[in-house]
Inverse folding.
């Protein structure tokens, strides 16, 4: 079963949703289908630049004040911690372009380690307050997937991966994806948001049942038609 996930590494519900999805798969136990997971880029804030801006300051301007922002982040942080994720908005997170991080995720895809590198990027931002536009931070995240530092440096010094990332962002627009995370299953079914694990389990179970091949008819059944059975 193919799973295409559009996500951004500075989207808190993308990190929560990632783990809720994985928990949903675990709930299926032995009935869990074999998954082929692909991560795709989405820019939560296309206007963000390479100069870091304190996240609290940026959110306060966007969501109508510091108090409202603190309440919103506290609720989101609680939801993350309920999943065992060390999200901590007191670590001095910054608003910055995630385009370099998405290029790293594209590179990680070439090595087959998007899961490991993506998780490292989420942790760097949400648990450690690291600037995801800094080369050393990206090199550190790449190490989670055993990608050599010099390979990351070479990518960042060029335009490698840029066209592919832009194409992925364009694909999201073509599909009408306006919020993340969005999980597209087998190119036909979409689940949006960080849904509870039970919802993901239910959807996967339903799709697996729909796609299961019909049981083969017995020889006697094959000989029977709408008007009777042949001898």
């Amino acid at each position: 079963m193919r799973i295409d996930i559009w996500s951004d590494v500075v989207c808190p519900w993308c990190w929560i949703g990632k783990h809720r999805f994985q928990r949903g798969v675990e709930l299926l136990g032995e009935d869990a289908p074999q998954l082929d997971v692909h991560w795709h880029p989405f820019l939560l804030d296309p206007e963000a630049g390479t100069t870091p801006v304190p996240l609290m300051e940026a959110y306060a301007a966007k969501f109508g004040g510091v108090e409202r922002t603190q309440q919103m982040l506290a609720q989101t942080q609680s939801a993350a911690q309920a999943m065992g994720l060390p999200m901590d908005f007191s670590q001095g997170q910054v608003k910055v372009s995630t385009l370099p991080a998405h290029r790293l995720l594209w590179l990680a895809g070439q090595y087959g380690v998007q899961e490991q590198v993506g998780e490292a990027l989420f942790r760097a931002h949400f648990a450690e307050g690291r600037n995801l536009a800094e080369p050393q931070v990206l090199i550190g995240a790449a190490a989670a997937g055993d990608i050599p530092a010099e390979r990351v440096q070479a990518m960042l010094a060029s335009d490698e991966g840029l066209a592919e990332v832009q194409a992925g962002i364009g694909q999201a627009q073509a599909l009408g994806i306006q919020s993340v995370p969005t999980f597209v299953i087998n190119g036909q079914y979409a689940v949006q948001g960080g849904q509870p694990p039970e919802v993901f389990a239910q959807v996967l179970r339903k799709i697996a049942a729909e796609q299961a091949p019909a049981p083969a008819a017995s020889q006697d059944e094959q000989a029977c038609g709408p008007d009777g059975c042949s001898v």
Q: What stands out?
A: Residues 223 and 229 are 6 Å apart (CA to CA). The first strand starts at residue 2 and ends at 7. DSSP finds ten helices and eight strands in the chain. The two ends are 42 Å apart (CA to CA).
